[in-house]
Amino acid sequence: MAKKLRTRKHKVVLNRSAGGDAGITFLLVLLGAIMFLPMVYVVMQSLKPLDELFMFPPRFYVMNPTFRNFKDLFSLMNTSWVPFSRYIFNTVFVSVAGTAGNLLFSSLAAYAMAKIKFPGAKFMFETVRTSLMFHATVTAICSFIVMSALGWVDTYWARIVPACCTSLGLYLMKQFMETNVTDAVLESARLDGSTEFKTFWVIAMPMVKPAWLTLIVYSFQGLWNSGASIYIQSEELKSFNYAIQQIVAGGIRRSGASAASTVIMMLVPITVFVITQSNIIETMGSSGMKD
Amino acid sequence: MSKTATKKAVSRSEMTKLQWTWKEMKRNWVAYVMVAPFMILFALFTVLPVLLSIVISFTDFNLLEMPNFVFMQNYITLFFDDDIFLLAAQNTFVFAAIVGPASYLMSLMVAWFINELDPRIRAIVTLIFYAPSISGQVYLIWGTLFSGDAYGWVNGALLNLGLINTEVQFFKDADYVMPLCIVVALWTSLGTSFLSFIAGLQGIDRSLYEAAAVDGIKNRWQELWYVTLPTMKPQLMFGAIMSITSSFGFGAVVTALCGFPSVDYAAHTIMHHLDDYGGQRFETGYASAIAVVLFAIMIGANVLVKNIISKVGQ
């Protein structure tokens, strides 16, 4: 077997068959097209003038691109009962506050669980990890009961506070700290008389930049995309995504504006991901479960 | 803190386990302060609701009147008297059993395909596959593509080719809704597990492959089975949990595309049933029983898959 191996500058060239390469490329292009074309189609639809939106047979590409749909969307926004800037403020406020809270609370807890040996740490982490196994729909009804008992229904608290403790955030942060923050550095800081809080903030946090970026992106994306919430009834507290869905829900006449709104909504998370991709992948490197 | 550390080592053998735990707790009090904000909120919004669901599922609570204890009545009704629940359970199983594994395998396959590409190209391909899962309501475009009139792209193409004479009402036909929803769910499903697999594959030390090649691994398929998959088992485990959990969370996609309830309950899942009784009819006791059943199914599915994955490469 060994004689078949070619070496180039002491590096073993792995066996790769041309047929395998071709097959993989073919499958990748096919799957990629299925994933990508609907996304392109949304953009196409948003740029189509009315006569092209209702053309038979429908065409994939836009012939005379126009920003009419975006203008229509903005004029529809101006007709809303609550000023549209209020919806935008709600989404931005909730996203920023929830993300900041989540980053702080999850990192603090992750640091303690990963780097301080204290009784109960393992039990707490196992409980959080178990909660990754079920979807939040299961707890929706009883969360509502808890929320009403706290008197938080129909306030910003109902949307911000639960967002401050995501299991996935804590999980990723703890795993990343375990592999990337060395105990020796923390130990020497402690010997120098640094308090745990100071060690956390000055030593540990700068070492886990990819993890907190990932946490910010995940938390922000979730909050940015959140639409109607069962906790919110007042129109003035509802989110941008909810409002935009309402105004484009006007049936077939609004299909252009609807596509335009989808494009606007997807631009933000996609841009954020493009900027932070390498950090997120780095964080995922330590996401594995050992048992 | 470090001063007491040496003291602890001396006296540990003289203490009972309880005493020692108490001492450790006092010594590390700052750790409890650090986990407190997260754990209190977690207890309040995740642990407590789960426990409450279990308790309420044995009552006839309806948010207004004092609840009565009804023992197993909700569960008996659910399994023996509620045909729609049984249909929903069946749909949920079909949905999860297809979307979960298919999304998992697709994530793994694509991550593996792009692993040896140039980093810049890999970043672009990653974005293409990942984008649908983070773009909010973008899946509504499938409603346009499969729209029930001649302006829908698929209907238009089929009419134009003369394959059909009248438009097919894709999202209003019980034969089509389930397969279509599965396709759309799959389209949006390359999420966290996909990224985790990419990272896992990137993290494998190249020298392992070189050693394997010397040891007689002939091609990439053997390499995948004997080297890659066993090495990235922790990621496989994490990805499985993410895929399974999200395969139960596509209720919103179905509602957005097919309306609620879907035609003949063809795409009605347990999540919809839960929402129907909990969010609209306010039969909280009954809804809690549905939630408990769903909870048990999710945990069961995860435990099952965890056991399967632990056998990879053995």
Can you characterise this structure?
The complex is a heterodimer of chains A (291) and B (314). With 291 residues, chain A is an all-alpha fold. Chain A folds into two domains: 16-66, no CATH class; 83-284, MetI-like (MetI-like fold), CATH 1.10.3720.10. Chain A is 67% helix and 1% strand. Chain A has helices at residues 18-47, 50-53, 68-78, 84-115, 121-131, 140-150, 157-163, 167-180, 183-191, 196-207, 209-224, 240-248, 255-284; strands at 7-8, 11-12. A two-stranded antiparallel ribbon of chain A has the order 1-2. In chain A, β1 and β2 (11-12) form a beta hairpin. By secondary structure, chain B is mostly helical. Chain B has two domains: 1-56, no CATH class; 72-309, MetI-like (MetI-like fold, Orthogonal Bundle). Chain B contains 16 helices and no strands. Chain B has helices at 2-11, 17-27, 29-56, 73-80, 83-113, 119-134, 141-145, 153-160, 174-187, 192-202, 206-214, 220-231, 233-247, 251-258, 270-280, 284-309. The two termini of chain B are 44 Å apart. The model of chain B is unreliable at 1-7 (pLDDT under 50). At the A-B interface, β2, α1, α4, α5 and α6 of A face α2, α3, α5, α6 and α7 of B.
